[in-house]
Amino acid sequence: MPKTVKKENLPVKICPVCNRPFSWRKKWKKYWNDVIYCSEQCKRRKTKQA
User: Fold this and answer.
1) What is the pLDDT of residues 17-36, one digit of tens each?
2) What's the pTM value of the predicted model, to 2 decimals?
3) Burial class, 7, CB count within 10 angstroms (exposed 0-12 / middle 13-18 / buried 19+)
């Protein structure tokens, strides 16, 4: 039986650009600690906000 986690129990971070919460994704499994932005769009906008 696979180990599953309910969506409401996934880790959450706040994007510093849009100030919205975003949840853990399977594709970020290996580097979740390094993820800062919720999307590529926010990642590109980071320099415009500073």
Assistant:
1) 999 999 999 999 999 999 99
2) 0.74
3) exposed
